[in-house]
């Protein structure tokens, strides 16, 4: 499992990059194993940005001109399209650390927990999960909570 992490926002924030990366790697492994996807050659790119940059991306790619917490850019439409052999580049995740910080304060938990939750949410999108319909939303939320529980990052 390879996480390619970039973004100046991570370097300037309060979050400890090494600890956050370790939690994110664990989260990715949990999800991939739960979904029956081989983690050995999976790759996910993660970029940490500020609200201004994620607003621009949200506007340019989704036509929504406002900041958001996380964006997912999947390589495949669903997990069934992931190749059985060779490298599996699953896609790109973009997280606004400004939004993560604000949401952590709003929900009363740590910034690390919020950033990892946003990453978990985004990986599930990379694997074809969605939350547009109530049934899909319930399935996605259950997968998120299972992963967060396995990480020991339950709601405080």
Q: Quick one: overall form?
A: globular
CATH architecture: 3-Layer(aba) Sandwich
Find the structural class using helix and strand composition.
Answer: alpha/beta
Domains, number = 1
Q: Low-confidence parts, pLDDT < 50 over ≥5 residues?
A: none
Textual characterization of the structure:
Helix 2 (17-34) runs parallel beside helix 5. The protein contains six helices and four strands. By secondary structure, the chain is α/β, with parallel strands linked by helices. A four-stranded mixed beta sheet has the order 1-2-4-3. The protein has helices at 8-12, 17-34, 51-62, 97-107, 111-126, 134-151, and strands spanning 2-6, 42-49, 70-74, 88-96. The chain has a single domain (2-151), classed as Metalloproteases ("zincins"), catalytic domain (Collagenase (Catalytic Domain)), CATH 3.40.390.30. The radius of gyration is 15 Å and the shape is globular.
